[in-house]
Amino acid sequence: MLWLIYRSIMLTVMRSSILVGGQAVIDGVMMRVPGAYATAVRKSDGSIVYDYHKFISKASIKGSLSSLPIIRGMIHLYESMRIGYQTLDWSMNVNNPISDNNNKILDSILSLLSVLFAISLFFGTPILVADFFHNFYEFNNNTLAFNIISGLVRIILFLSYLILISFLKDVKRLFQFHGAEHKTVYNFESGEDINIKNASSFSKEHPRCGTSFVFIVMLVAIISFTIIDTIASNLGINLSVLNRLLIHIPCIPLVAGLSYEVLKLIARFQQYFFFRLLAAPGLLLQKITTKNPNNDQLEVAISALKHAFGDDLSKYKGKTFNADAIG
User: Fold this and answer.
1) What residue ranges do the domains of the chain occupy?
2) CB of 69 closer than 8 Å to CB of 13
3) Would you say the pTM of this structure is higher than 0.90?
4) pLDDT in the model for residue 246
5) 3 state SS for 143-184
6) 19-61 residue pLDDT tens
7) Which of 76, 83, 29, 92 is nearest to 53 (CA)?
8) Phi/psi at 37 (nearest 5 deg)?
9) Distance (Å, rounded) from C-alpha 260 to C-alpha 72?
10) What is the spatial distance between Cα 146 and Cα 124, in angstroms, rounded to a whole number?
11) Helix (H, G, I), strand (E, B) or coil at 1
């Protein structure tokens, strides 16, 4: 029985369906499909402009080390971040072009500061709070209790951040394009004709959304960092706030790789209550990060998908799919 369960899980994590997804960008949507990705942005004059790139993920090369479970998740995270940053940067310049090199340098500095701020907020602060409780209540080096507190603080901070930014006008518009992306991916997966009428009928929440992935990462981090801290403690390493940061931050890619496999399992086994339960928090988070789009926004998302596929879209017409990951 245990062998059958193990084999079922391994077949699931090794099996690939089709990678379709993307992300919302400024006034538009980026869609990623097998072998390419395209970004569509609505200009201030009402027209839509496109940016198309061929791209083969290293994680999709069968038989290679990069296609193995966990490793492919680490690669997927890196590739998604790189493509995401490039497409977001391009979309920002469509209606607000930046030609001054000094502005580009300033933009790079601000991006670096944003990363440092995110690390401080979502890693430094939770560890500091957990360390306070650890010293106050004397957990006796209970790494599980420490990381549960740290993880809960991280989740609270993340939720607070999402709620606060959701009130910003530009962010609301971004979240509408996020909803348009999900509806379009659902439309593609259904096998129905891809158009505004059909896309609008689907849910704006999707179980394989990047928001769900982030939440899974935070849950997996609690378990992973507990194991890592236990190993470090047994090796005689003093688990100070600084040492925990120095140990945890380099392990983020590993945690992301594990989380990617968990997300694939959740997506594949939605018919089982346990996996629906795991998916529920991510879907609830999407109540914040997605808004119902208007027809103009759906048109942009559909255009991005069609430009990404090009003539290959006809190969998938009338077929149903489960996209492995979406934005």
Assistant:
1) 18-316
2) yes
3) no
4) 94
5) HHHHHHHHHHHHHHHHHHHHHHHCCCHHHHHHHHHHHHHHHH
6) 688 899 999 999 999 899 999 999 999 999 999 999 988 877 7
7) 83
8) -145, 150
9) 8
10) 14
11) coil
